[in-house]
Design a protein that fits this description.
This protein is mostly helical. It contains 3 helices and no strands.
């Protein structure tokens, strides 16, 4: 494989932030479920930080996606993981507001 392409650092960081964000949200929901549906303040704080990480990850993923001469795997994976995380936070907020 003779190419000048490289993996962009921002794309890798986007992927890492997406993994952290999705993992944190999954653990927070699991702990809330195990607590009988009552979320502790620590779970809410972790979810808030996960949402912030996912927004930063989205920006980094989009930015690195448009660079030239880079492999697109990490920017794409980071973008989709962070987008999944943002959608997950929106669904959690919607369910919390509607009282379901």
């Amino acid at each position: 494989m003779f190419t000048d392409n490289r993996h962009p650092e921002e794309g890798i960081m986007s992927f890492i932030l997406g993994c952290i964000s999705v993992g944190t949200l999954a653990v927070a929901v699991l702990f809330t479920y195990n607590n009988g549906g009552q979320a502790k303040i620590q779970y809410a704080a972790a979810s808030l930080f996960a949402a912030l990480f996912s927004v930063v990850g989205l920006v980094l993923g989009i930015k690195s996606r448009f660079e030239k001469d880079v492999f697109k795997i990490f920017p794409n994976l980071g973008f989709f993981l962070n987008l999944l995380s943002v959608i997950f936070v929106i669904v959690i907020l919607f369910l919390g507001i509607s009282g379901l």
